[in-house]
Predict the structure.
Amino acid sequence: MKPALILISLFAFAPLVNAEVTYSKEIARLYMAKCQGCHRAGDIAPFALDSYSAATTWGDDIQRVVKDRIMPPWKPVDAHGKFKNDFSLTDEERQIILDWYTVGAPEGDPADLPEPKAETGEWQLGEPDAVIRMPELYNVPRRKDIYRCFVVPTDFDDDRWVKSIQIVPGNRQVVHHVILYIDTSSKSAELDAKDEEPGYECFGGPGEGIQLGPGSMLGGWVPGSRTGTLPDGVGLLLPKGARVIVQMHYFPAGKVHSDQTKVGLYFAKQEEKMSKRMVFIPLVNTSFKIPAGAADYPVTASVPVLPGLAATLYMVVPHMHLLGRQIEITRTNSFGRANDSFVKIDDWDFNWQGFYAFEEPLRLNVFDNLKVSCRFNNTADNPRNPSNPLKDVRWGEGTEDEMCLGFLGLAFDNPSIIDQLKFQKHNNRR
Ligand code: HEC
């Protein structure tokens, strides 16, 4: 044999080194941790990935989407923040899966299989303290993307501290994502009354003319999200008499489906001493213009943490619309104390948005400078571009408008500051 051939045959047998990887031992555990959040009976993904036969039946597709990094659809780039419920695959895990198929997908000994995921029933954290739901069944028309807000009045006899929420989509085949807002005005009820159908149309926010304040976001749901609980002493305030706006993004299949999504609320127990109120503060630029034809147009906004505004940061929520390609939220500190990136998304997809909760909360110190940086593609090469012909695009709530927005889920050290905060607009035009 010529030396070159020997080398080739050595490489050809190299995967055998990993031959001990079996479905029952490694692969089943990987699929359980990284895929079954969605690939299980009754959930959003097209098939359950919970058996050896599913793993092999779907083998070709799995290899393709794992290799091309289409699945799992975890968006944040590594090493920019450590998040709870991260379902991304490491490079090593990706390789283990691909190698396992290459050597013929050995099943191994079924005795090695992990315990199946515990069935928690509908409510992951047990019975909620209160359940609110869309006022009536909504027949989702057969259009492609539908964004609609439904208004749910609450009637708790005093303010409530919310520790966790679980959103249960009424129909996982059509619900793509859900965002909850708190409305302490009567604006949402007015919009609802004006529209003959249940709810009213809304795309990038709670609806035309509803002012977002520090306390107006309650939470959200995207496919695959699990319910978390805020740390001890931390809660979201749901003021007495407030309405909850349930913003739904529907992505209907071929026929008319109906949906009535509900939300389980878990309140702080009487004995829990609530010392921190979490609010969502937007880092936002509202005065940009993305020129028609611009392929990589940057928009940024930054704001310093002023004296009195030191805080603990629990989560980040990046948000853009359909022209967005990349978004990053960073912090720098002129004293050199910090220079870090909280979250970075390289291939933004409006359909896979997340509330990213840090594994360990972070401190925001006075004179830290917080910044959101967005990049937009307003050309015809962007397959998601909703405008044809192309046009200049500005801030707005509509499908054809844009946003460059990072919500910071934080609690100020001095909670009384919240009532003095007005949402200033940071118009750093570029
Ligand atoms: C957050 C939810 C979620 C997670 C986690 C997830 N998937 Fe998916 N997957 C989907 C959805 C939804 C689809 C349907 C196609 C789409 O909407 O992109 C899908 C489709 C697929 C398909 C079919 C793709 C095609 O082009 O036909 C494969 C194969 C797949 N997933 C494999 C996996 C594997 C393997 C994992 C884990 C390593 C995984 N997925 C994790 C939601 C998820």
In short: The helical segments are 3-13, 23-34, 52-57, 59-67, 91-102, 187-194. Residues 151 and 245 are 5 Å apart (CA to CA). The chain has three domains: 3-112, 130-276, 278-420.
